[in-house]
């Protein structure tokens, strides 16, 4: 960085312009004033193009995810906190302890600096609260009309505890399906703020980092845990169909056991959506060996993010790999993958 | 939510189901069609067929507004949307309806057409007022339920003199379609129906009176029912009783909302703003006389069919598609050879697969487990 400082960024009225991505002083200033100040940590402070760190032995996991949610700010979160939580959760679903994140920003010319600073602060807060630092990043600016305000991509790495090897193909007949809490909160919260749809609701997104809950689950159930998934886009129905498909099994659910907040159920009723298809950003579904199920649920309920954890069904042998459900009314139905899309750009 | 929950109560449902089982006549088959897609969805969504005795078969009717929109009209809407000066606004579930060659408004949008999803007709008018340089066309579809909101937006557009707004009207009518299905069944076709579950929301608008002609002409009972699963079970019980008694009357299960005369103000609006078309094409049912509405002359300035050159095109359905026979209850979805192979909810070919309210999509998404040989373990 140069010692010859330009005037400060106008974080109240300023906007992103093409110079903020041109590699010159304006870009350096943006990165320093907006991102480094929000994420501040020893790796970023070195100002290198990469972060160097020691790794312990054993298995590592790595994941990456892009965030394009619209609107950028929604009840209970924003694109920044979501970009931290979503990637942490993808790491945690391998029972792994998330270690480091990277963040890449695609900014649209004209995007208000105040919004960008707010998003960066939210990311910084989410990352500090989770104890997973953003150690490296990248910034690009594209011309007006070539993006929608801001897109964020985050990559994460994590360390898998010894003895844990979770994967979507490990569900076996007799296993128990456990859900960590109410479904549909995130999708409904985002939908409630979308233009042309807006409705009043007290529902907040459930966006949250799940690695703390996962650590307690691993301590309680250990290798009896077959697999975990966070039911984001496509909701619980997509996640369970994927598990059934990958494991070559069927799943039988009990609708009455699946927790749904009454406000979410009401909003879904209004919008013609099935809560099973609606996205979550702070919930997980676990498949566990039957003898460890009660122990696992007890451990989950002791954690704030697993308070409403419940056994919602079981894994069965089924060549057709159907996810089937006994409805609250007493009949049977298939829970299918959602055709098309229920909500555009919820994450 | 408590109000609604009671209509989904499993214990209450078992009580009604036991009554139905007790009252069906041994050795007799009961074939009831629920006309409306909302009922089809509820029957599948709650697994109502599992609660009925095997002698009762529910046949899924054509009352799904996006399903019956013919390919020619979809093609015309796509052509409109592709005009550089046009913004096409419509309800979300219309976007995926396939026209010819698998094109849809969704694919047209991906190709650069300005297609916007709206939740109300007034949102479409707002787009026109916000963007005076665009020609905003609202693609109106649906039965009598969605017709009054279209009437309202036409009235408001005229009041405000909103010159860049128009409506591409595809509203259809329930009683003529019901008549067409019963007429087919009685004219020597293999399967006739023993009764109809009448639509819920449509009947709030038109009332129960229009069904009297149908029960008299075709000698089949009609029971208007609400959309909750318990409503449907009660309607089935009422139909069983009419069949057993040899009656064919219009009965109203949905008395908490539906009256004999319906919503008189909405009917007056519709009569003023729309006129009856001589004939209209229904996907799966073909051309039905006096079965649809066009915009009446005083509102002609807001009729997209007059403002733009929309040619009347008929595009033939895939010849292997069995939608026509399925909609008449002559075949079941799984008996169509396109079902689940070429035709799925992701790649719908026929009307019945287009929306989750269609007979085939409901069976594919909710009921497929019933057709397999092996029972679940």
In the CATH hierarchy, the third-tier topology of the largest domain in chain A is known as Phosphoribosyl-aminoimidazole Synthetase, Chain A, domain 2
Helicity range of the residues of chain A? 25-40%
Mean pLDDT value of chain B = 90
Strand content of chain A: 15-25%
CATH class of the largest domain in chain A: Alpha Beta
Low-confidence stretches of chain A: none
CATH topology of chain B: Rossmann fold
Oligomer: heterodimer
Shape of chain A: globular
Structure notes:
The complex is a heterodimer of chains A (347) and B (377). In chain A, helix 1 runs parallel beside helix 4 and helix 3 (79-92) packs parallel to helix 4. Chain A is of the alpha+beta class and 347 residues long. Chain A has nine helices and 13 strands. Chain A folds into two domains: 18-159, 60s Ribosomal Protein L30, Chain: A (2-Layer Sandwich); 176-334, Phosphoribosyl-aminoimidazole Synthetase, Chain A, domain 2 (Alpha-Beta Complex), CATH 3.90.650. In chain A, 50% of the residues are buried. Chain B has 377 residues and is an alpha/beta fold. The radius of gyration of chain B is 21 Å and the shape is globular. Chain B has helices at 2-5, 10-23, 37-45, 71-82, 105-110, 121-130, 147-160, 174-186, 201-206, 210-218, 229-245, 264-273, 304-307, 323-327, 359-367, and strands spanning 30-36, 56-63, 86-90, 114-117, 135-142, 165-171, 195-198, 222-224, 250-252, 274-276, 279-282, 286-289, 293-295. Chain B has a single domain, classed as 3-Layer(aba) Sandwich (Rossmann fold), CATH 3.40.50. The model of chain B has no long low-confidence stretch (mean pLDDT 90). In chain B, helix 2 runs parallel beside helix 11. At the A-B interface, helix 8 and strand 13 of A face helix 2 and helix 15 of B.
């Amino acid at each position: 960085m140069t010692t010859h400082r330009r005037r400060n960024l106008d974080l109240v009225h300023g906007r992103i312009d093409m110079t903020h991505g041109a590699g010159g002083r304006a870009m350096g200033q943006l990165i320093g004033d907006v991102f480094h100040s929000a994420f501040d940590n020893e790796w970023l402070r070195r100002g290198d193009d990469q972060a160097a760190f020691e790794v312990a032995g054993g298995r590592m996991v790595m994941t990456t995810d892009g965030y394009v949610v619209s609107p950028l700010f929604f009840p209970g979160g924003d694109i920044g906190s979501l970009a931290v939580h979503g990637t942490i959760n993808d790491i945690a679903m391998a029972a792994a302890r998330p270690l480091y994140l990277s963040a890449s920003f695609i900014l649209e010319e004209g995007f208000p600096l105040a919004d960008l600073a707010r998003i960066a602060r939210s990311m910084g807060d989410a990352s500090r609260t989770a104890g997973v630092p953003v150690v490296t990043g990248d910034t690009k600016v594209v011309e007006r009309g070539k993006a929608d305000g801001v897109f964020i991509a985050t990559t994460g790495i994590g360390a898998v505890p010894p003895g844990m090897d979770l994967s979507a193909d490990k569900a076996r007949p007799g296993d128990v399906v456990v859900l960590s809490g109410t479904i549909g909160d995130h999708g409904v919260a985002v939908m409630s703020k979308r233009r042309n749809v807006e409705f009043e609701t007290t529902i907040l997104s459930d966006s949250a980092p799940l690695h703390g809950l996962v650590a307690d689950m691993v301590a309680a159930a250990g290798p009896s845990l077959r697999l975990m998934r966070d039911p984001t886009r496509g909701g619980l129905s997509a996640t369970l169909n994927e598990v059934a498909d990958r494991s070559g099994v069927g799943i039988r659910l009990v609708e009455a056991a699946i927790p749904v907040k009454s406000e979410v159920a009401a909003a879904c009723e209004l919008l013609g959506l099935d809560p099973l298809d609606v996205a979550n950003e702070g919930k997980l579904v676990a498949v566990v060996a039957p003898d460890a199920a009660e122990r696992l649920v007890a451990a989950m309920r002791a954690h704030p993010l697993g308070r409403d954890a419940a056994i919602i069904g079981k894994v069965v042998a089924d060549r057709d790999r159907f996810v089937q459900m006994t409805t609250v009314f007493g009949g049977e139905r298939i829970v299918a993958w959602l055709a098309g899309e229920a909500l555009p750009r919820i994450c | 939510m408590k109000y609604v929950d009671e209509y989904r109560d499993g214990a209450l449902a078992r009580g009604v189901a036991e009554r139905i089982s007790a009252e069906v006549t041994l050795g007799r088959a009961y074939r009831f069609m629920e006309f409306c897609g909302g009922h089809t969805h509820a029957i599948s969504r709650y697994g109502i067929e599992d609660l009925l005795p095997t002698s009762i078969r529910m046949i899924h009717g054509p009352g799904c507004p996006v399903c019956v929109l013919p390919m020619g009209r979809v093609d015309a809407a796509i052509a409109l949307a592709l005009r550089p000066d046009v913004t096409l606004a419509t309800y979300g579930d219309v976007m995926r309806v396939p026209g010819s060659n698998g094109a849809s408004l969704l694919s047209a949008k991906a190709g650069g057409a300005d297609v916007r999803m709206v939740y109300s007709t007034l949102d479409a008018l707002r787009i026109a007022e916000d963007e005076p340089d665009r020609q905003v066309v609202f693609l109106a579809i649906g039965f009598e339920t969605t017709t009054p909101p279209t009437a309202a937006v036409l009235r408001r557009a005229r009041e405000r003199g909103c010159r860049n707004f128009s409506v591409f009207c595809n509203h259809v009518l329930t009683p003529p379609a019901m008549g067409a299905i019963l007429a087919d069944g009685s004219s020597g076709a293999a399967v006739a129906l023993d009764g109809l579950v009448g639509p819920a929301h449509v009947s709030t608008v038109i009332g129960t009176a229009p069904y009297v002609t149908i029960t008299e002409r075709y000698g089949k009972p009609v029971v208007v029912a609400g959309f909750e699963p318990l409503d449907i079970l009660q309607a089935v019980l009422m139909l069983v009783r009419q069949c057993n008694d040899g009656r064919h009357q219009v009965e109203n299960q949905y008395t908490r909302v539906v009256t004999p005369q319906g919503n008189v103000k909405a009917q007056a609006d519709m009569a003023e703003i729309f006129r009856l078309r001589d004939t209209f094409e229904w996907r799966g049912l073909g051309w039905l006389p006096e079965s649809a509405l066009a915009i009446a002359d005083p509102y002609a300035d807001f009729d997209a069919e007059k403002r733009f050159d929309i040619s009347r095109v008929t595009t033939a359905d895939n010849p292997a598609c069995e939608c026509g026979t399925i909609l008449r209850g002559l075949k079941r979805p799984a008996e169509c050879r396109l079902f689940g192979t070429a035709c799925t909810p992701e790649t719908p070919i026929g009307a019945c697969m287009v929306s989750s309210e269609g007979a085939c999509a409901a069976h594919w998404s909710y009921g497929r487990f019933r057709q397999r040989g092996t029972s679940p373990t």
